[in-house]
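FW: tagging you since you asked about this chain on Friday. Here's the raw sequence from the shared folder, copied in full. Didn't touch anything.
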Amino acid sequence: MASSAEDHHHHQPQTPYGSTVAPPSTPTTQADRLSTSHAADALSRLIHRLPPTLSLPTRLAPPKTSPPIVSFSSQNLPYEIRSSSSKLSFFQLTNHSIPSQLAFSAEIESLSLFNLPPDKKQQFFPRNWPLGFDEDEEDDGDGNSTVSLCLSADCPTKSTELDLPSLTEFSRAMEKVGLEIIEALSRAVGFENPLRSREDEDKKSESRPWSSLVWISEGVAGNKPVFNGRFYPYIVALQYQIRCRKYSLLADSGWVSVSPQVDSVLVTIGDIAQVWSNGKLKKVRGTAVASLGDEDKSRCISMSLLVTLPLESSISPVLPLAITVDGEDDNRTKADNENEVQSCDQKRVFQSFSLEDYAWRVYNERLLFKDPLDRYRT
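HL: got it, structure written out here
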């Protein structure tokens, strides 16, 4: 499973003196593009590390929008997803099967994990990237430090001393919904679902073609989103709305403020899905983060289920299929579809790349001011 991979530093070459050096750059024929990408990355990291006295001016409040509503019980689920995702990279899912009480119990168990003493946190959740606790050491001076915890959805902890029944059941229920959303999304956009196409092969080895991670963030909400810049690549992310709360999303168009209705599931489309769709889908970078006002200094816990891929996977655009969704007629001929496939194949938006290299980069370099997928565009 992806989350059980050893630390990425183990993959780096050793010098004669025992210290590590950066891995060699990926060969490319687009030297100018790569050079520009490195320069933008360096600028992004520099801006992130500016001390409070040299910080950039406060940005304007993000525009507010109501997430489109998609009914999970609808017979036309792919059609509704396509209509809702034609311009946005997120929507709120209603009429799903996840009990509200289960989500509330999972939140209580999650909060108890952040109350553990440091030695117990290390004992129950030893750091094994991306798993374990991650405390943001770069406090920006206003008290908005954050702590996050990444867990494997199918096995939150191997410790027999710590039982998390609600969080485990909640994670599996969210994963089931997420997989159905991916299937409907692939049908809606018109490409073959890579998870389904590889499922028969993986059954022989009893492994799964996907990996699910539970991403829990904790911080004191203040006058800006609790966001430390770290995120992990995913296909789709799901966040159950336990209470009425405003969130900020970092979409391709910039920051957006949303307020999903209670008991809905906020679904965001990730970078892997954007590559699979050959750029047809927009994406959200990271997950939704709480964005409360100055008057609310409450402790804030956010739980997200990320459906992603095993760490050793390679990501590339998926050839399109004829789009056939319930409620619509597909009058295109076989020749039309073959021509479309050929045309799209000749105009690939993204190159193939390693998920492990990409995941390590976006998690550690905190590229807030630049799309990390830019360097892989053709």
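FW: Confidence is low (pLDDT under 50) at residues 1-31, 50-59, 322-345.
HL: agreed, and Residues 165-189 form the longest helix (25 residues).
FW: great, closing this out.
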